[in-house]
Amino acid sequence: MGPRIGPAGEGPQVPDKETKATMGTENTPGGKASPDPQDVRPSVFHNIKLFVLCHSLLQLAQLMISGYLKSSISTVEKRFGLSSQTSGLLVSFNEVGNTALIVFVSYFGSRVHRPRMIGYGAILVALAGLLMTLPHFISEPYRYDNTSPEDMPQDFKASLCLPTTSAPARTHSNGNCSSYTETRHLSVVGIMFVAQTLLGVGGVPIQPFGISYIDDFAHNSNSPLYLGILFAVTMMGPGLAFGLGSLMLRLYVDINQMPEGGISLTIKDPRWVGAWWLGFLIAAGSVALAAIPYFFFPKEMPKEKHELQFRRKVLAVTDSPARKDKDSPSKQSPGESTKKQDGLVQIAPNLTVIQFIKVFPRVLLQTLRHPIFLLVVLSQVCLSSMAAGMATFLPKFLERQFSITASYANLLIGCLSFPSVIVGIVVGGVLVKRLHLGPVGCGALCLLGMLLCLFFSLPLFFIGCPSHQIAGITHQTSAQPRPELFPSCMEVCSCPSDGFNPVCDPSTRVEYITPCHAGCSSQVVQDALDKSQVFYTNCSCVAEGSPVMAGSCDSTCSHLVVPFLLLVSLGSALACLTHTPSFMLILRGVKKEDKTLAVGIQFMFLRILAWMPSPVIHGSAIDTTCVHWALSCGRRAVCRYYNNDLLRNRFIGLQFFFKTGSVICFALVLAILRQQDKEARTKESRSSPAVAQQLLVSGPGKKPEDSRV
């Protein structure tokens, strides 16, 4: 992600005052410091292992706060009346600030105090997390029954069928709309957009500066191990975010200002809104605590001198063939090893900011001319688009498709999906390592993984629940219900147009938006041992006037959510098999001096083409399946009901589209690699007789000037 400029060890490095005391151990036997009275005992923060530990915890907390909004996206939509397109745009703004500044990390990487910059970025992330909670504290308490003029008690009587003479009193909810109300709504939404932007800006220096710092001062043999530990711990962040969301959404949103009489909602009620803001407070506090050690780490520290013992033993067994091949003189001649080309990585430290901006487009176009690099990046764009849409809206999809609670959906995703992603990445890396895969092998592994992922995605189109039968809504073509579409039995009632208090007729499994739309004129509360059940009676729109139960009708196929998510998790693991081999293809597809910049360009394209637009695209597709919108001051707010079949086909169809694009790109990559490998073998076979002739002419005691093929 745009690490520092230039490889480690290039150019003179002047240690600062914090590290002078420890530099004396470099040139003495056994690593012992010279008996200089001015020497100071090294600080505990002059330890790269401690930095790896701190950075793992910081990136874990950062990804937890970045991913927490995705776990509560449907709750935020209900609380503030947002469409899926708007909530997708809100998620995308996390990448706006990050994308705008990530390129400059390549410029400032070797010129600043990296640990302190990481600390400043983490503090900004924590402040942005606190800013995300501000809308909760400046908004009025949540009213789950819009027809109630008072905050509490918000009882079920407000939705009963009343005579038409009371109609003026039942339409007051939209009458409360004013310019102040609209301005306050826009301010609340604007605050969340600003907070998401600051979250992205604060995360800019954390990963690239941390990776380059570890690579600079860790032992060359230990650096891959440290980075592997860092990535493994970091990958648990999104899973913890969904676990935290599962816990927080079980608490009522206004837990800090509960009414005296309590609330009449249960967690299964479709109007339930959980304490989404509480998770941001916890995650922001974690980031702030993790940021403290970075203000004590030095700008530079002595490079680690010893390889880890257990790693040395493992490599002695597993890496001997690869190490011999790596050390073979046929890989690179001494002349080539010292030859440096004028890439941006080498010249950037000598450029001003303006010169850097001017030269960047030319180097960008030069890098994109590599076909392997371009195709692999395009395939990763497809995969990232799939992942961004899935991570953002999968909890909401499971809620709507299988009629489960937001808390349960987050729990399933945190326990199944994200662990499978980690397993897929690890298995992909192990296969590349164990099988000693070259470029062609990496391309074949990527293609095989994506083909299997595509195959296991097909059953997802057929695993789902049908839409609930909603009186007056299910069979209409218009997205907004009109009063004349409801049964004539409710004409005597003055039902609110924007009311939402669903009830279910258990005999026919027909759902009504409110008891008023079912023609019910009274209610009965039956107390049980653990909870009370509310029934509405005297319902003129229900056969034989049977009572109806409060709440939405239960789904008959909620049990299918587990096999559905197991297939999703399996597909995610297969797709993540391509992570390591595709990264290796990028590193081997460009020149050595352009590798650092190529990685930065890769992440920039992933953000611009995938992580930014994908949530908006998925949110827009979800909105097209809505059959009943809630109204807020005359505008469309949150969607109340979806067409489940359309929702499943369009959401899974988008995923299938991006997976197909990735398969096509990897197929082209493999075809190009095979062609290049064939041409290389042909060239090698032609040059072999010339080398043999040169050996015969030079005689047995002489060596040719250059026998490298």
What does this structure look like?
- This protein has helices at about 15-20, 50-70, 75-80, 85-110, 115-140, 165-170, 170-175, 180-200, 205-215, 225-235, 235-250, 275-290, 310-320, 320-325, 335, 345, 355-370, 370-400, 405-435, 440-455, 560-575, 580-590, 595-610, 615-625, 645-700; strands spanning about 470, 505, 510, 520-525, 530-535, 550, 625-630, 635-640.
- It is mainly α and about 700 residues long.
- The protein folds into three domains: about 45-140 and about 185-315, MFS general substrate transporter like domains (Growth Hormone, Chain: A, Up-down Bundle); about 350-465 and about 560-685, Up-down Bundle (Growth Hormone, Chain: A), CATH 1.20.1250; about 505-550, no CATH class.
- A hairpin with a 2-residue loop joins β7 and β8 (about 635-640).
- α2 runs antiparallel to α12 (about 275-290), α4 runs parallel beside α8 and α11 (about 235-250) packs across α12.
- Belongs to the organo anion transporter (TC 2.A.60) family.
